[in-house]
Amino acid sequence: MSLEGKVALVTGATRGIGRAIALELGRLGAEVVGTATSESGAESITAGLKEAGVKGYGIVMNVADAESIDAGLKQVNEQSGAPLILVNNAGITRDNLLMRLKDDDWSDVLETNLSSVYRTSKAVLRGMAKARWGRIINISSVVAGMGNPGQGNYCAAKAGVEGFTRSLAKEMSNRGITANCVAPGFIDTDMTKKLDEKQRDAMLENIPAGRLGEPEEVASVVAFLASAGAAYVTGETIHVNGGMYMG
Amino acid sequence: MSTVEERVKKIVCEQLGVKEAEVQNTSSFVEDLGADSLDTVELVMALEEEFETEIPDEEAEKLGTVQDAIDYIVSHT
Lengths: 247, 77
Description:
By secondary structure, chain A is of the alpha/beta class. Chain A is built from 9 helices and 7 strands.
């Protein structure tokens, strides 16, 4: 399952699932470029990759800003070559019940979690089409299918990502480019550490596996989709959730 | 230095995977050379790159044949 010679761009790679994905793709031989929203975040990515003995570096990129994406990709193209693996992982939450949800909470989440996927995908397609090889892997969420109170914005964005991915898969599959989603359930990251014990217990009751997932357990599925062996898997959403939801 | 015509035909061959002998000035990308919609988008992008120009979508749609592409490039570069 070697990814030797491929450049992989992973958005939101400072922490959690994105960090685990960056390390796993690097371990398989890809040159990894991880994005962060701050200079210090980019530096910590560079340091983390170096410590793990992985080729790659961090860059500053705000996925909600088209100009920032263009500038970041220009840097990657010049420094490493065209990314043939794109993992859209960057995401935010602004949870609130719809009756209390602010317009900004809605638009920020849609911009960062959905429009970003459109922008970054479009930006890398040309290089992938030329290479006749590409992997676009979008991190969705179990709640895209289930729905979740207080997450109307987040669920809408993630369900949007899944629909977008299916269209993209159909458009590009005869160029050797696949597009898939990985939909994590409750993974042990900063995003889920915010929950209190009561919320955590309630959550665990609905997970047949009886535990939260580890970021590495998401990363290994992303790595599979990036590999040569997944060439005939496209437009698919793979759930990684310990059995809590089966589509 | 190759002529515009030669450069356009070379790109058409590369993008559509056809032989040079098949590419006539009157050849239609879709009907004669078997291009699908994605091929035509890629072809236009390749022409933009080769001739360092931007072809707006509404102009790109009108480029049906090899000669259309040559004419466009000649009058816009």
